[in-house]
């Protein structure tokens, strides 16, 4: 396996936040494509967000519609479970990335679709129907979904170097399942007041509870997104995030890397640009995306889940300032 990780022990990274619009899907797709292109990793994206934005970005409109027509989505994978049956292997629902010119990022995907919302509802309804019938062996939908995802993705760890999960925003059965089987949980966060509130709620009502119940073993990392370095509010809340992590108010590490607000990224996620070389597709933000991927790789390669030496706040600020200057110059 390329770049230090052992292919027999592929890693799982999930992206989640209570708040929508923070760059969750963008971060999922860009990390997947960066690792595939720059590290030569075999990468799978599992789209658990019913909005299916990651699926559209990776497949394109026409191919995505064909996948849904063929019942090859994550909703179709879970459909038998809503009826009390065992699902087929998840590998049967993988849409393989299309090969293009040398240097293109090739990423496989398990697509989502809007009906996933109804699948989740059906899982809950079946559980309560069984409880009303006094079926004592009935499994709570959260636990059942966690078990299925953990087993299904566990089998794929031997196939992929990296599995990226795009979780739905907020708290849900599928968000919990995605986070529970992850080695690293990344919370993309815009450095502003409302996004910071959402991060606090994610940590307090979701991450801590899962950890207390023994259902969460991965480390959490905060990724600043849509950063405008010249914006005083953004500069203020980058410091607030740093303070929250330093004081243990958030059980997480604040990544040195960040994703600047950039039209290059918005352009790159246009499905019509699939097949374009990675360096051309992401343009001036490529260097920042590679820096983020390297930092994530470092966390994943650490068996103890801790970086060997935490950078000082001044050093971290210096690195952020350097990247801000590059982004502003771009």
Quick rundown:
The protein has 330 residues and is an alpha/beta fold.
Q: What labels would you give this structure?
A:
single chain; 330 residues; alpha/beta; Rossmann fold; 7-stranded parallel β-sheet
Describe the structure.
By secondary structure, the protein is an alpha/beta fold. The chain has a single domain (2-329), classed as P-loop containing nucleotide triphosphate hydrolases (Rossmann fold). 48% of the residues lie in helices and 10% in strands. It has 13 helices and 7 strands. It has helices at residues 24-38, 53-59, 61-69, 74-82, 116-132, 141-156, 173-180, 193-212, 232-246, 263-268, 278-282, 286-301, 313-329, and strands at 11-15, 43-47, 107-110, 162-166, 184-189, 219-224, 253-254. It starts with 10 loop residues before the first strand and ends with a helix. Residues 1-7, 304-317 and 326-330 have low confidence and may be disordered.
